[in-house]
Amino acid sequence: MAQGLRKPVTYGSGLGDNRVYLLVDHRMALGLLKVGTKRLFVASQKPSVSAFADVQGAFTEIEPLCVLDFYVHERCQRQGLGHDIFEAMLREERSVPAGLAYDRPSPKLLGFLKRHYGLQRYQPQNNNFVVFEDYFAQ
């Protein structure tokens, strides 16, 4: 598994408001992409005017659509299938890559986002979500 987990963390039941996009060939799943809206507190992008710690201005509350799981079978990687499923999700959700948050993205996903969408600058967050600087420029 891409994140070194010992068991699956995504099940068919209990998805709540999350949506799963599956890429299937006949009866074989080639890839999946799970998204859902989450309420996040992220480090504020605005520099503090005061020299003193400003707890209220330290974090910004956002509620973006989040990429929660993204996986393409090893045999099918680097063939454009991940890009296809990602683009299908963007069309269906009426979103753009910079407008999403990414839950614990793997180095492969970060490379994918940089290569296809030019996303690379972000501030590390304590909650392990990645929100690119371009999110705040929208």
Topology:
Blueprint: E1 19-25, E2 28-37, E3 40-43, H1 55-58, E4 59-62, E5 65-72, H2 81-93, E6 100-103, H3 107-117, E7 129-131, H4 133-137
Parallel strand pairs: 5-6
Antiparallel strand pairs: 1-2, 2-5, 3-4, 6-7
- Strand element count: 7
Order of helices and strands: EEEHEEHEHEH
Report mean pLDDT, rounded to a whole number: 83
Task: Supply Rg.
Answer: 16 Å
Strand content: 25-35%
Biggest pleated sheet: 5 strands, mixed
Strand neighbour order, sheet with most strands: 1-2-5-6-7
Report on this structure.
By secondary structure, the chain is α+β, with helices and mostly antiparallel strands. Helices cover 24% and strands 29% of the residues. The chain is built from four helices and seven strands; from the N terminus they run βββαββαβαβα. The strands form two sheets. The chain has a five-stranded mixed sheet. The longest helix has 13 residues, at 81-93. The protein is globular and about 50 Å long. The mean pLDDT is 83.
